Structures are given as structure tokens and as C-alpha cells.
């Protein structure tokens, strides 16, 4: 069944469920940021041991990964992250220097932001929090569009033609005229479309248009920025 989102699906209406994964060897950094995140009800997972990094990514599916440490440590973490091709988390690299030498893997597709020395952890966490919320929205949009595409694949070519015309707001008579079929045939195909997509009217068919537009917008947002 293809239906619209409810409040529980929208991460901006409640604290995001996707955790923040902190990859760092600095105990004080992990402790201070974790304490601040707890006050904001942001789930946090610490991973100071890179030998557990990929397993932690696979188990918890974080919305954001914050890497903090030396160039060597961060580049090792990036190479490990690349191996997790199903992980769609946003990456933040926190450096204590003015510059950092990153060897970005060629296959790395995740959005990444490099931030300066963590003088203001509250500001850093705000950026991360925003990135996790956007990550949740993108995941919601992709999930809905994938379900919709799977349902549409069950329709015949003729039924898809009817679906396209219905989404364009065309009445049954206009559809019948354009497709050169009877009005009864259009009504039958329309009923089949609604049954397969799990809707009772044409209204919910506009959801995928909105999700696609929202996803295009969110994909353009740089880590830590707001979409509006």
C-alpha cells in the first residue's frame, strides 16, 4: 500500500532517531559532545576503535558520522566508510589544524564537510543535528519513491498511461478520448491503478511528486546547512 507520511515519519517533528556516530580517539571530545547531545536528546554512539568501525556502521545505520583526529586516523576511517556502500550517512571531519590532508576514496559518494577546531561544540552539534534531520527526510523520500516505483511496476503499459493522465489532472472522458478507448475501459484501468497503489482517490497520487521535488532540493543542501 502506498500512502502519505504520518507524523512519526518526519524527523523534524521529533528528535531524530538516526544516531550520531563519533569516531575519535580523544576521550574528552567524545565525553563533552556526548553530554551535550544527550541534553538535546540526540542518540550518540562512540567508536574510538577503528577495528569496530564498519561493524558499528552496519549495526546502527547512523545519520551522521563525525570523524575527529589526525590526518592518518581520519583517512583510515574514510577508507573503511567507503567499503560500506549501503551507508548513506553524512560525514563531518573535525580538524584541530587550519588545514587537513584528506585522501578521499574515489568511490566515496557521501556528503562531507570539513569543520575547523571544535571551539564551540554547541555550534558543531547544531550543524550535525541539522544534517541528521535532512538525512532522515532524504531516507523517507527515497523509501517512499522506491515503494511507489515497485507498485507502479505491477501495472500494465495501458494502466500506466491512465496513471500519468490522472496525475496530470485529466478527467476520465479526456483520457478515453486521448487513448481512443471507451469510458468504461478507462474506469476499469483507473480502478486497477488505485487498487495496486493502495489509494481510494487521485489525491494521494501527488505524494510521489512532492517527495521527488523534496529529494532534489535536499540533495543540494550542503552538510550543516538548512534547506530554506
UniProtKB/TrEMBL annotation:
Residues passing through the membrane, by range = none
Biological process (GO) annotations held by this record are: regulation of DNA-templated transcription
Q: Where is the HTH luxR-type domain?
A: 152-209
Gene3D superfamilies from the UniProt entry: Winged helix-like DNA-binding domain superfamily/Winged helix DNA-binding domain
Task: Cite the Pfam families for this sequence.
Answer: GerE
Tell me the GO molecular function terms.
DNA binding
What's the protein here called? LuxR C-terminal-related transcriptional regulator
Q: Which organism is the protein's source?
A: Aeoliella straminimaris
Amino acid at each position: 500500500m502506498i500512502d502519505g507520511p504520518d507524523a512519526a515519519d518526519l524527523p523534524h517533528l521529533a528528535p531524530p532517531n538516526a544516531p550520531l556516530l563519533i569516531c575519535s580517539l580523544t576521550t574528552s571530545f567524545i565525553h563533552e559532545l556526548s553530554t551535550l547531545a544527550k541534553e538535546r536528546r540526540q542518540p550518540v554512539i562512540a567508536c574510538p576503535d577503528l577495528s569496530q568501525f564498519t561493524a558499528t556502521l552496519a549495526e546502527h545505520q547512523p545519520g551522521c558520522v563525525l570523524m575527529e583526529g589526525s590526518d592518518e586516523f581520519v583517512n583510515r576511517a574514510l577508507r573503511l566508510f567507503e567499503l560500506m556502500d549501503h551507508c548513506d550517512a553524512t560525514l563531518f571531519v573535525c580538524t584541530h589544524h587550519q588545514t587537513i590532508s584528506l585522501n578521499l576514496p574515489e568511490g566515496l559518494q557521501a556528503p562531507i564537510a570539513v569543520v575547523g577546531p571544535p571551539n564551540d561544540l554547541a555550534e558543531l552539534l547544531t550543524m550535525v543535528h541539522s544534517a541528521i534531520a535532512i538525512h532522515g527526510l532524504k531516507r523517507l523520500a527515497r523509501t517512499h519513491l522506491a515503494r511507489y516505483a515497485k507498485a507502479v511496476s505491477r501495472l500494465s503499459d495501458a494502466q500506466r498511461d491512465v496513471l500519468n493522465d490522472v496525475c496530470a489532472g485529466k478527467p476520465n472522458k479526456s483520457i478515453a478520448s486521448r487513448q481512443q478507448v471507451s469510458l468504461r475501459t478507462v474506469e476499469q484501468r483507473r480502478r486497477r491503478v488505485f487498487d495496486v497503489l493502495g489509494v481510494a482517490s487521485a489525491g494521494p497520487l501527488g505524494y510521489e511528486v512532492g517527495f521527488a521535488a523534496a529529494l532534489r532540493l535536499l540533495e543540494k543542501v550542503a552538510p550543516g546547512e538548512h534547506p530554506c
